[in-house]
Amino acid sequence: MLRNRFGRLIAGTAAGAMLLAVAACGGGETEAAPSAAPGSSSAPAAATAKVGLAYDIGGRGDQSFNDSAAAGLDKAKAELGVEVNELEAANGETDAQKEERLRLLATGGFNPVIAVGFAYSAAITKVAKEFPEVKFAIVDDAAEGPNISNLVFAEEQGSFLVGVAAALKSTKNNVGFVGGVDVPLIHKFEAGFEAGAKAVKPDITVQKKYLTQPPDFSGFGDPAKGKTAAEGMFDAGADVVYQAAGGSGAGVFEAAKAAGGLAIGVDSDQAKTADPTVADVIITSMLKKVDVAVFDFIKNFTAGTVKAGVTVYDLKAGGVDYSVTGGKIDDIKTQIDEYKNKVISGEITVPTGA
């Protein structure tokens, strides 16, 4: 496997194409509909479309955020016949390094180019201006530009539902939240989770811990930090811990296993993707359907209907939800769905932490 100062080379369908590495997960919000709405584009036909995708820290194989994006890319490759190049981020990168990676894709003939994570916001804003003929998309941020599409989510709504599940499953009236990096996007996960737990049990204790502070984004890829944080919560009385920490979540699951506690995954159905030795402690996951957003964007590009601006994937649109793999919340599903319907109807407005 080739390596250079930009990151890991990953094989794509374009012969001899360079694959590199990219950073983080991020937020932004506005009103919009689920699947990308119509607009104008000079997109090529699917058979000739070459899609460049730059992952967040951890890349393909993180069992969470990035793998969800990868699933959407894989679907586009299989169903739309597009060629792909995938780039992976490294810890501690500068905006200049992110910019250079996006430029390499754009100059290499990749159009559209998708950046996975809010850490690309400054880079994509700058590079998109340099390549006005290329369509760009960013997951989790509302970077502005006439050729930038923003794929964002109502993470607080999905987190509210797993907060309900945590409270219903907690016998100690004490639950925990582990955030990867202390940024506004992850505050949405925290705020929704706490609101959901307290909707069920107003006096429940909600412990909270962020692994790193910006500009240190290693909190999204450090299982050891995740394990230490969760161990502290279980020692302090928690019996269910929710993590919104990317690759660091693996450590949270390890801590839950060792403590005889329960855990909640994030972004993808982690009871299916986590290490089998710890998967049994995961009672549910907050589903953030990055795969749907990525596929929608690519499909609209190939159809010539991609648009700039914000599209929000919320609970009503099916962009966020909760998982039921393993049957561990079958006994409380009816109660969770009652809250879900109240959020969709507008009876409950979930805070974002802003």
From TrEMBL:
Stretches assigned to the ABC transporter substrate-binding protein PnrA-like domain: 56-351
Signal peptide location: 1-23
Keyword presence, Lipoprotein: yes
Main localization of the protein described in the UniProt heading: membrane
Alphabetically ordered keywords of this record: Cell membrane, Lipoprotein, Membrane, Signal
Intracellular or extracellular location(s): Cell membrane
GO cellular component, one term: plasma membrane
SUPFAM superfamilies: Periplasmic binding protein-like I
InterPro entries reported in the protein's UniProt record: BMP_lipoprotein (IPR050957), Peripla_BP_I (IPR028082), PnrA-like (IPR003760)
Protein name: BMP family ABC transporter substrate-binding protein
Organism: Acrocarpospora phusangensis
Species classification: Bacteria, Bacillati, Actinomycetota, Actinomycetes, Streptosporangiales
Gene from which the chain derives: bmpA
